[in-house]
Specification:
single chain; 211 residues; four-stranded antiparallel beta sheet; three-stranded antiparallel beta sheet; 5 helices
């Protein structure tokens, strides 16, 4: 109930969300990221953490400030680089949603691990997860794309953020197609989600108006 109260109270929250993807979608050969971009590896995320400082403070430096999209106290949030992650929550491997306003789990494509940001910590943690967890995806590349805005297959636009020797999309991915045009299934049923062995996406609380 507490999570639903937070969800319903944040009028503008949904306008910033991306979709949640399982790891099968993130690693599908058809390509989840826009052409020329990729879902980050654990090494990519470690490079980002090193650039902004260290794991004890990097979470705060990459989090959106304030408590519009994070629960109190949003510990250590300074958003020094405009990365602006916020508490989008996730879908657990059993198919249930949780963590809105409290956590964001950024997908890492290898090793069943995720980078976790929390409302009550300035750290960023590498967390072992499950292929059936549904998490947000931030894409990156190593070379200048030559433009400040990237468009995915569905026509969604993303701002480009230059951090060190990396170029990140500032917004979480929200495409419903792989970049070869193949449709990604939107799986809403809880039990079906928990037994998937292929790529899928969902919106938080299975509400597509939240993207």
């Amino acid at each position: 109930m507490r999570q639903n109260l937070i969800f319903n109270s944040l009028l503008n929250y949904s306008k910033k969300w991306g979709l949640l993807y399982n790891r099968y979608a993130a690693t599908d050969a058809s390509g989840l990221a826009p052409t020329g971009w990729r879902v980050p590896t654990a090494i990519d995320m470690s490079t980002l953490v090193t650039f902004v400082g260290n794991p004890n403070t990097a979470g705060g430096k990459l989090k959106e400030t304030g408590t519009i999209h994070w629960n109190n106290p949003n510990t250590g949030a300074t958003d020094d680089y405009g990365f602006s992650v916020f508490g989008t929550g996730c879908r657990g491997s059993t198919g249930f949603f949780f963590g809105i306003g409290e956590y964001v789990y950024l997908m890492v494509q290898s090793g069943m691990a995720y980078r976790v940001f929390a409302y009550n910590s300035s750290t960023i943690e590498l967390n072992v997860g499950n292929n059936n967890e549904g998490n947000n995806v931030r894409c990156l590349r190593d070379t200048d794309p030559g433009t400040l805005i990237i468009t995915d297959y569905d026509g969604n636009n993303y701002d480009v953020l230059h951090l060190g020797n990396q170029y990140w999309l500032k917004q979480d991915l929200k495409t419903t197609h792989y970049n070869d045009g193949t449709l990604i299934p939107n799986v809403t049923d809880t039990s079906t989600w928990s037994t998937l062995t292929t790529g899928a996406f969902c919106a938080y609380n299975n509400d597509l108006s939240n993207i």
